[in-house]
Specification:
about 80 residues, mainly beta, six-stranded antiparallel beta barrel, 1 helix
């Protein structure tokens, strides 16, 4: 008995269309209160929507607080943009 290759169904095509990949918009150099430096990457997960996502270079999720601050979600550590 030979195996048949998997065929993409309609749901696979829709999922591929909805999230073709993250579009990196820019990177922010930040530091915490101890002076440790981090790079926050700003993504647009859906090119046609005005939605942004933030994460560190290692993939850790980051929450946008305001124009000057981010927060590492797993630790609660606050990051300030470097000026």
């Amino acid at each position: 008995m030979r195996t048949q290759p998997k065929r993409s169904g309609l749901s696979d095509k829709i999922a591929a269309h909805l999230n073709p990949g993250n579009l990196e918009l820019y990177r922010e150099l930040c530091q915490d209160e101890d002076g440790n430096r981090y790079t926050v990457i700003v993504y647009r997960p859906f090119p046609d929507l005005n939605v942004t996502r933030y994460e560190l270079e290692d993939g850790s999720p980051v929450r946008f607080i305001d124009d000057c601050l981010f927060e590492i979600e797993s630790t609660g550590r606050t990051l300030a943009r470097c000026t």
